[in-house]
Amino acid sequence: MPVMEWNETLMLDRGVMDETHREFIELLNRLADAPETQVLAVLDEFIAHTEAHFSQEQRWMEQMSFPPTECHVNDHQGVLQVALVVRKRAAAGETRFGPVLARAVAEWFATHATSMDHVLALYMKEVGFKPDALAAA
């Protein structure tokens, strides 16, 4: 059962940001449903995607001199730190925390996307900034 589903509320730019967020949600759902033997692999994929996703947004913020960059980046860093701790525990055999992480990050992301990312998307539109694709990161 999905921990989060893509919906209209999460749509921000109808472009790169939304595509990246859809992929993020897909990975959260895969992590939530991963069999114990696959948690570590899915967690690694989730962390790699999340690092690229967050780096992408940080790069955009820096390129635009986005005023609340530090606050936004700190929010991202908290999620990554927890994911890395869960990864370490999963590598030690404690795979039960993978689905717990997925549920917690889904709750966090619902708020983050509709607040911090929404403000970022509005600012990008206001200044005419055209974001690059994740693959170009």
Care to describe what's here?
This protein is mainly alpha-helical and 137 residues long. Helices cover 72% and strands 0% of the residues. It has 4 helices and no strands. Helix 2 packs antiparallel against helix 3. The chain is elongated and about 45 Å long. The model has no long low-confidence stretch (mean pLDDT 94).
- One letter per element, helices H and strands E, the order comes to HHHH
Give the low-pLDDT segments: none
Largest sheet: none
Report the sheet-strand fraction.
Answer: under 5%
Oligomeric status: single chain
Q: Summarize the amount of helix as a percent range.
A: over 70%
Descriptive keywords:
single chain; mainly alpha; 137 residues; 4 helices
Task: Give a short overview.
Helices cover 72% and strands 0% of the residues.
What are the SSEs and their pairings?
Layout: H1 16-33, H2 39-64, H3 69-91, H4 97-127
Helix pairs in contact: 1-2, 1-4, 2-3, 2-4, 3-4
